[in-house]
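Onboarding guide, step 5: your first structure request.
Type a short instruction followed by the sequence, for example:

Predict the 3D structure of this protein.
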Amino acid sequence: MFRPQIHHPFFGDLASVSAVLAVLLLTLAPRALANDGVAGLGVGGLVLQQTDRVRMVSEDLYVSPDRVRVTYRFRPLDDAGLETIVAFPLPPIPVNNRDETVGMAEPPVKNPLDVVRFRVRVDGRRIRPLMAVRAFTEKGDITDLLAEYGIRPYDWPDYEAFERRLKALPAEALKKLEEAGAIRRLSPDYMDYGWKLQITYFWRQSFPAGRDTRIEHEYVPIAGQFFYSPENDRWAVKRYCIDSGTMRGIRRMIRRQGQDRSFLAATQIEYILTTANTWAGPIGRFRLVIDKKRRDSIVTLCWKGLKRISPTRFESVKQDFRPRRDLEILFLAPLPE
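The system replies with structure tokens like these:
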């Protein structure tokens, strides 16, 4: 069975919880990127192995192009309460010097594992989650293989130093890495490398009987950024449920930019809502607020019941909500001058 590398924020090993977390991580299937890599990477809610002992009483979700905030209330359904591990998985992140792009900003060099600046509070108290890290290619998990040659899968913000380190490996190591799909030797003097990095934040959580537990977290979303054209990107009409009124607004925005500026700046945010189904029953009360941040921008998504509550914010409230699909939100704005 796969044993994940487990790290705290200073990268110290914490093997004592690896067996428990490995079972949990095996339930988190990697999500694929879509539409030639222009899509963002979906980040979503807290995950628990399927349970009928704790209910999500409420979820209050705020999404903007540069911030996601979530507040949950959980309630045990028996007199024993529950203590378990909860996890917040990031989607697979490409680590490579190939042509693949994900439309995201470079992560902080000092801590490449804190890609989304994830912060969490439990009942108002800030906690520091642990992290499990693994790397994989299309041929399978390569975490242990990288470790065998002294390569940490997240040592990637300094690309030139990383490449020098790989090239200094003996021929046998390079051969094994090539067979595993981690590198490709394109010429005697050049090779490229590539794998997907899977980061999961996690912590041990108590849900005491007889009261609600409040969990809050926020992070910077991994946004897909690209140029949008209604002529060239017809896939977006279906994916984001762009109706005729919204399309007229899009075309007006493009016309106002002038003849030589036929594109808009597009930002895509995904939020994995369906992780809520690992908890007992439906979400008692679900509130969604989407903030486009700019009055002159357009937001569109496949969602019924959104109402404008301010010049830039939209709200939807649902009772006893079982999410059947994840959120995919498209923000469109004029090109910068």
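Each response can be followed by summary notes, for example: The chain has a mean pLDDT of 79.
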